[in-house]
Amino acid sequence: MRKQIAAANWKMNLTIDKAETLLAEIIAAEINLEENHFAVFAVPFPYLQIAQRKIENTKNFFIAAQNCYSKESGAYTGEVSVEMLQSLNVKYVVLGHSERREYFQESNQFLAEKLNIALEYNITPIFCCGEPLSIRDAQTQNQFVAKQLEESLFHFSKDDVQKIVIAYEPIWAIGTGKTATSEQAQEMHAYLRKVLADKFGKEIAENISILYGGSVKASNAKEIFSQPDVDGGLVGGASLIAAEFITIINSLK
Ligand code: 13P
Questions:
Q1: What is the predicted pLDDT for the residue at 59?
Q2: pTM of structure
Q3: I need a surface site. Which of 22, 109, 115, 206 has the fewest CB within 10 A?
Q4: What value does the mean pLDDT take over residues 115-139?
Q5: Nearest C-alpha to atom 1 of ligand 1 is from which residue?
């Protein structure tokens, strides 16, 4: 059974006090997660250790980093290695978010290197892909997103590629309040699964969780997550409000 994941991406938000309160409120809800349901919190680097300690005893809750560097260690001022994440017991890392691609010029090739090192250290990457509005308007989103997968993921073995979680985040739906319809999400997710099946085989593709991201909130999560190829969500704004995110976690199918 594929993992169903509600992943919070806090981005560059919250001070430590607010972050601790938010996590405490969500933990206090005592959500009883099924075996294949997971809640993941991608928190800013300075909060990783505190957040990790807070969720340690909560079943199927995990902490994620929002990024990592592609090198093992060394003179890379300001960067964070996967070995550091591993030493904090962090199990997930978000890679290739559209904001990293846009503001920090992260290319598919560079992301492939980050994915390599994350897997080497047994940290599960949540690999983001998704098209800008101009590409959607030109109706070339399938080719665009397939290329992101090809250039970052196609060098992996079948064994390794199944360790990766994919998040489809159409850029035009991020922080805009404009969600893809559940049909649009399903259509793209089914297409991505086909791209993965053509390369790695149907069985492997069936094992890979594909999350949807872009204006997911309490009021639309259930409908989006109910689509057969949508395995949960990567949530920005609504993950900063305890009640919203609790409902989103409870919307996993
Ligand atoms: P919003 O949920 O705020 O649209 O952000 C989505 C996102 O970028 C999650 O990574």
A1: 96
A2: 0.97
A3: 109
A4: 97
A5: 236
**Residues with Cβ within 6 A of ligand 1?**
9, 97, 169, 174-175, 213-216, 234-238
4-249 maps to which CATH number? Answer: 3.20.20.70
pLDDT tier at 1, thresholds 50, 70, 90 = confident
**How many angstroms separate the alpha carbon of residue 170 from the centre of ligand 1?**
10
How far is ligand 1, taken at its centre, from the CA of residue 178, in Å?
Answer: 11
Residues serving a catalytic function are 97, 169
Q: What is the pLDDT of residues 193-251, one digit of tens each?
A: 999 999 999 999 999 999 999 999 999 999 999 999 999 999 999 999 999 999 999 99
Select from 40, 234, 245 the residue to mutate for testing ligand 1; criterion: most ligand atoms less than 8 Å from CB. 234
Model pLDDT, residue 175 = 84
Interval between CA 126 and ligand 1 midpoint (Å)? 14
Residue 179, pLDDT > 90, answer no
**Of 169, 210, 245, 248, best ligand 1 pocket probe by most atoms within 8 Å of the beta carbon:** 169
Give the chain as a DSSP string: ---EEEEEE--S---HHHHHHHHHHHHHT-----TTEEEEEE--GGGHHHHHHHHTTSTTEEEEES---SSSSSS-TT---HHHHHHTT--EEEE--HHHHHHS---HHHHHHHHHHHHHTT-EEEEEE---HHHHHTT-HHHHHHHHHHHHHTTS-HHHHTT-EEEE--GGGSSSS-PPPHHHHHHHHHHHHHHHHHHH-HHHHHHS-EEEESS--HHHHHHHHTSTT--EEEESGGGGSHHHHHHHHTT--
